[in-house]
Amino acid sequence: MSVTGILPDREISGLFDAGRLASARPLDPDQIQPASLDLRLGETAYRVRASFLPGPGSLVSEKLDRLTLHEFSLAEGAVLETGCVYIVPLMETLALPADVSASANPKSSTGRLDIFTRVLTDNGVEFDKIAAGYNGPLYLEVSPRTFPILARAGSRLSQIRFRRGHSLLDETALSVLHEAQTLVASDEPNISNGGIALSIDLAGGENGLVGYRAKHHTGLVDVDRKGAFKVSDFWEPLYNHGAAELVLDPDEFYILVSREAVHVPPAYAAEMTPFDPLVGEFRVHYAGFFDPGFGHTAAGGTGSRAVLEVRSHEVPFILDHGQIVGRLVYEKMAAKPDALYGADLKSNYQGQALKLSKHFTAG
Q1: Who has greater pLDDT, 53 or 276?
Q2: May I ask the CATH class of domain 5-164?
Q3: Which of 5, 14, 295, 303 is the most exposed place for a label (fewest CB within 10 A)?
């Protein structure tokens, strides 16, 4: 009998071998992650009037015929403007087994650039959710919110997880796992609503730095270039000047960090809930996947903070140091992955504290 849980790297590779996953061109060497697959933009993008879901009995291509304003090539790269909505067919297509479903999320670097992405499927009634047995193409909705971006065919903005059955840990199982392996560095963890709470760090380090607020009217960010852009050209640093609190201005974008260090043991995967109306009118963490080995000592993590992409809605909102801002939910892996997040993969954000995306360098 097949084991339930999130499929690890070697089983994702097996889906390709079995023809359950296909791609328009060979996989990149690092495209398969410990518990997910990076998805690549295809050759063509469509600017559309508005976001949409196809709904039952409807193909995404049919909606594109009606809603497209402009079609253009990504073969040599193209600029995606802020405030616009684009639909891009992805290189990867699915023919999932009847017992395997999937979910998608922006990659960490995508979330930290405030690029709003969601995966669509034919007949889909939810974003980022792929039904068990789905057979067809994948599309990515892309909407840069803060910085205009340069993207091209093959750029990787989103990732997909495959699961067999249901493997979410309930609160009892979470408590047992935390007791054994310390999921978050907290003397009294808040385990409720199916997850384990994370709070905000507004005390700051030695220099009092607590986060960054994105600047407006900046230059382009090339999503495929690492360490190519100055922090000071795109971000305003925020400091604790004596009051460990921060007023979130409506529709401003912030990079903050959790007070607790996070640990995802090798036999588990985790996900941050992006928005919890119980803790305030703001969204936290666009990019919610935490791979097996994140913060794991043996993988070079020794506990890693969760970097939070934060945007307030409607009204100004005051965050206080230690305030709960989100929850981590954990799932069992169907098997331990061959490679762990961190030392095995030279991952960008292992052992992190407050950290901007890989595109920026100080100076």
Answers
A1: 53
A2: mainly beta
A3: 14
Evaluated on CA atoms 339, 342, 346, 348, the torsion sign reads positive
What are the extents of the domains in the chain? 5-164, 171-361
For the segment 165-193, the average pLDDT, to the nearest whole number, is 89
What is the spatial distance between Cα 91 and Cα 303, in angstroms, rounded to a whole number?
35
In the predicted structure, residue 233 carries a pLDDT above the cut 50: yes
349 confidence band (pLDDT: 50, 70, 90): very low
For the domain covering 171-361, report its CATH number: 2.70.40.10
3-class DSSP string for the chain? CCCCEECCHHHHHHHHHCCCEEECCCCCCCCECCCCEEEEECCEEEEECCCCCCCCCCCHHHHHHHHEEEEEECCCCEEECCCCEEEEEEEEEEECCCCEEEEEEECHHHHHCCEEEEEEECCCCCCCEECCCCEEEEEEEEEECCCCEEECCCCEEEEEEEEECCCECCHHHHHHHHHHHCCECCCCCCEECCEEEEEECCCCCCCCEEEEEECCCCCCEECCCCCCEEHHHHEEEEECCCCCEEEECECCEEEEEEEEEECCCCCEEEEECCCCCCCCCEEECCCCEECCCCCCHHHCCCCEEEEEEEEECCCCEEEECCCEEEEEEEEEECCCCCCCCCCCCCCCCCCCCCCCCCCEECC
Fold match, 5-164 / 171-361: yes
Residue written as tokens 């604790």? 240
Contact (CB, 8 A) for 54 and 122: yes
Lowest mean pLDDT among 10-19, 58-67, 157-166, 338-347: 338-347
Q: What is the pLDDT of residue 350?
A: 47
Count how many residues are written for the chain.
Answer: 363
Q: What is the pLDDT of residue 193?
A: 82
Burial category of 69 from C-beta neighbours within 10 Å (exposed 0-12, middle 13-18, buried 19 and up): exposed
